[in-house]
């Protein structure tokens, strides 16, 4: 049986997932057979060109024609297009894979998670950083208790593409379309990754309350190809303090104004027995301090028995950012083929959204906010 | 003229300052002549041994005999001993140099700053990290506008000496004696360093409001040489979010539970034109991104024209932590000799204390607190 | 027109090149169309499985049937199989792409280069590290004179897979089949990369003479699945000193016994105006010191205008080792389609071989050897 | 009893040792009492100023008046002044501490070592890097067999102060006065450090043969304060390959032309069980790979039980370059007080010199040279 995939969105994320799908047969031969069946978008010409390049059989300009025709629906559009097509697909019994953040608003995210629950089909939120070998290896260590009781957690996602006040306006600067700025775009990854790594009850447990801070440094931006400017209605950066169930302290931060950092997502964890550090710009590495060690060990997570690595190349032959999408698609499509649950699903997408919404609420109210 | 110095405290800080005083003649020949005149403490035997080793002429077990007899009084005792002797010395017209944090409580700090103002003599708070060559070089760059408008500021001071729950109780774990824990001991350094680096009006300006979080992970600790335990009444760690006058965002953190970090005080600043990073465990280095650079430059701040370096060794011959005390004492004693103001004085000690107190208050109230 | 490719070798290198071929359409749409036509090997069953997985239309167990039937012949077999099929293909007018080192002996390499010259068709030696974006960016800087006059060059390739004396014997340990050990396998890359980077006349110029040192630490190794051992007849490690035409000094080294290093190929260059450093285990980065800089800048070579990067992902989204093969195949196949010369060709393969042979000769004679 | 020290040389090394002597009482209370008795030099005015600043009781312009009057003679002059005064002092039964390299020529070094043997008094060569805590800690690990059988050894000492062709001529550029250039000045440290670390019979054993390469990049340099130039008659840089008794391979290198490196002495060792790396510009750190580790651990060698550290500051409070002189002087003076042998003595100074001389000879002959 071949899974026919319909994909909404043909830019950055469309390319990343199409690439992932195309690489499965050679590297993950036990993945289900997949056909890139239909690519969905609005600009027919651009769409046709993209479909051709990305290996899709056909195109469609109306997603309503697609969501019940395909075996799986990938929703890779801008945030404000996440809810409606995803809910429609789920209602039609079609498994859905949706980019993060799950939705621009908590309400939409709840609606989507409800629809997923009702539908009872496989659903996924595309938190691809759970599928970095080094992160997965870190998770193993945490589950084995190698770090002991968790005391401190840090997550920071730094980019610099808006530090120039003349960088052009895009949908990512608009509250209607994006929901939030750095918070939703980058913070969603951080929140999910920390939930994944330390959220289990025998580690730090859930995030119980947060104190958030959002800031917009540049209030309006030029519209490309015109003399106009448009207002920036989302945050350029956020920070947050978190208290976990076990008392662990978290500090979170993201910015699009961090000069010198392109895609620098760092995670740091200190436990009673050890510590670890990870940076996405060196994603093949994990810095680890085990019990009895005197300093952090810089580990190249490229050995044969490291997560997913046996599918790729010999030790020391590093992989890149895009490989996380291959692993993610592999796991998602296997779940689809088996009718299994996929984690992170819409439930995890919603859980992250709740934290983000609480951070925003905290910022508005100027006080700590409990996370439901 | 020789300045006779009386020093209260003969342990860690007593040794650090005595060493600094002893090294001035060889390396800072234009420093005033100093006599290590009298060492003050309570345990006469230990005191005598220390005075001998640290090169003091005499000892005294009662500071009241000393504060008006010496030309300068160094208060290096535990925090709860900062206020009374310092105020007495100032009242006697004796210049005072006091270890940080200025006092265990804001009230004490205010009393001390008032006394300093009234006395009109040179006074100093021992924020020695202002005197790291790399930090001073960073300050030059900031003052020259090399980083542009300041957007983000981070300060983190990580240690791990309490992560073992059986690490013994000390005065540093007691609210009465220490005032606070990681917050006052480590956070005071961070707050002062950030005030120094970006606090000017044309940079980030003052810290306007904070949101703080304090945590005590281990509630009681064994008393050394007994079967008892005593309660830990201060924080083991704190975090804070800060908003500066210009809208810049700050995140602060310190911990005594950060496994793998011994004395790791890091500062990070992102501006519209550049960024910088500093770590105390590599204190000869500054990581700097200037306008037009593609990445951080790792600079060894040991060139002849770097701050204070011409007094020491040729380029690449690194200095250590203790050298910051030499620079600090040099500047303080020169100010004393000239009857000049020394910065950071008690005023700066108090300003840092205000931030720390606001962080505590914010933690208690669960909301942002404005800094007066 | 579609180029039909025949590939000899279906293991590590077969997979790396098949992957590269399969990725061209999506990321390098201006590459010629390629058909993975026939996969050549001896073990029919393994071959059939590989052809299926790697996307080949057919298989062949005799390369003589293939070399004149395809449009391009890829020779990815063990070193001792490089010469004969490559020469046969060239004689049939078929362009050839051959893995490095070009041959196990200098004589074979000369024969191959002669055949390439006679044939007048496109030919390539697979020195893929010339196609790392950071290396290509470094080359740009060198060509622009940013490093000034070259004084020092270092190249080191460290692996550790033979440090265990019980690691099994393979063809790579056999002089007949491999020619040499670390020298040919790893040193070939280093020699080529240094020739590429600084070999131009206005940089360091050619390598004029070498002093070499080869060492075998473990004399025999167990044969997998048997009680036998076989002798190791090649070097486990080599080092060399090089003098360049302009007087620059080079130090070269490679080892399969460097504990803790998996695939660590580092290049360092010091010139009169600047310096640079590169490590394959962090292949997205280049450390660069420009004139006037105070330290090395750590550059993430992932910007849109960096070599090849616009074909992939946005800044900061790092690529992996395998991407170097995509770039290499892209350039090679374009040259084939246009009937152009490809650099590095067999000529460059031979030039590297001459240096390697001189290092061996120097080791045997215990004296410096001039490179013809 | 107080040891009266006479010191020849009052510039860089004079200051470094005077500082070390002055710091002993406070930090190494069990060191013998030392009096900085007489400072020897030729320029009386400069000498008087230096003696005053460095804490010497008196001055002398003729060393012959000094060598038999003091309890210990420190020879810190330029290399060509090492032999005669040292031999005279030893002949008078005065213990001698001499800066490295022991002498400008092998003949002088032999004469000095003979004199030391005949005199039977304590003698030392000032290889201060043996006294870096991280190096001493590394030595402990090596002695405990933590690295297993030694396969590879690397030593590199990079500076950049001559890369500017207009940097002025000094005695260090003159063969008569210095003996050699980077080789003797920097290479002496490297050779000694490697002999210290792995020279024992159960580690790599002695250096058996070398292949050397010396280069002078700039043939003449301006004389400061004149229009003249003088020829550079020593090497600006050297490299060498070494074979150790156990078959281990060594690569050595030093340069005064390595742009971006100020005082970067790095040591790397790979053994069958582990590896280590050290850099003088981060001298508080050791990078260590132990058996079973997956990567290098970055260790801050500042714990209480690390070598010499208990004399200084708490963990994480880093020391500097100058501290190595304090440790060295402490050990040397204790040996003097006890009439004990000090290691490294003139014997070790001579052994290093033999290696350096063999490197020069190898360079001249263009072939490997056995080390006696």
UniProtKB/TrEMBL annotation, chains A, B, C, D:
Pfam family for this entry, one: GFO_IDH_MocA
All residue ranges annotated as the Gfo/Idh/MocA-like oxidoreductase N-terminal domain in the record: 3-122
This protein's UniProt keywords: Oxidoreductase
Origin superkingdom: Archaea
Keyword Oxidoreductase: yes
Identification of the protein by name: Gfo/Idh/MocA family protein
Single GO molecular function: oxidoreductase activity
GFO/IDH/MocA-like oxidoreductase domain mapped to chain residues: 135-277
């Amino acid at each position: 049986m071949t899974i026919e995939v319909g994909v909404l969105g043909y830019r950055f994320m469309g390319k990343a997932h199409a690439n992932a799908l195309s690489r499965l047969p050679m590297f993950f031969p036990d993945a289900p057979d997949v056909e890139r069946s239909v690519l969905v978008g609005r600009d027919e010409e651009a769409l046709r060109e993209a479909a051709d390049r990305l290996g899709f059989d056909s195109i469609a300009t109306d997603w309503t024609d697609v969501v019940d025709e395909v075996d799986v629906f990938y929703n890779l559009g801008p945030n404000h297009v996440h809810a409606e097509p995803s809910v429609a697909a789920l209602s039609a019994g079609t498994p859905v894979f949706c980019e993060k953040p799950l939705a621009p608003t908590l309400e939409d995210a709840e609606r989507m998670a409800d629809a997923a629950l009702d539908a009872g089909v496989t659903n996924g939120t595309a938190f691809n950083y759970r599928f970095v070998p080094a992160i997965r290896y870190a998770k193993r260590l945490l589950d084995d208790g190698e770090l002991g009781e968790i005391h401190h957690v840090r997550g920071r996602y730094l980019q610099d593409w808006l530090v120039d006040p003349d960088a052009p306006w895009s949908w990512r600067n608009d509250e209607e379309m994006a929901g939030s700025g750095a918070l939703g775009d980058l913070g969603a990854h951080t929140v999910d990754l920390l939930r994944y790594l330390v959220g289990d009850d025998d580690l730090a447990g859930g995030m119980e309350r947060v104190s958030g801070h959002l800031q917009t440094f540049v209030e309006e931006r030029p519209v490309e190809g015109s003399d106009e400017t448009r207002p920036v209605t989302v945050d350029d950066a956020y920070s947050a303090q978190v208290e976990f169930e076990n008392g662990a302290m978290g500090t979170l931060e993201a910015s699009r104004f961090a000069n010198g950092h392109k895609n620098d997502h760092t995670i740091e964890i200190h436990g009673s027995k050890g510590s670890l550090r990870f940076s996405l710009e060196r994603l093949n590495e994990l810095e680890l301090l085990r019990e009895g060690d005197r300093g952090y060990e810089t580990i190249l997570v490229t050995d044969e028995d490291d997560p997913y690595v046996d599918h790729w190349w010999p030790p020391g032959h590093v992989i890149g950012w895009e490989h996380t999408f291959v692993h993610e698609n592999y796991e998602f499509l296997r779940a689809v083929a088996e009718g299994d649950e996929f984690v992170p699903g819409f439930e995890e997408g919603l859980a992250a959204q709740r934290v983000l919404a609480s951070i925003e609420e905290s910022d508005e109210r100027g006080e700590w906010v409990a996370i439901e």
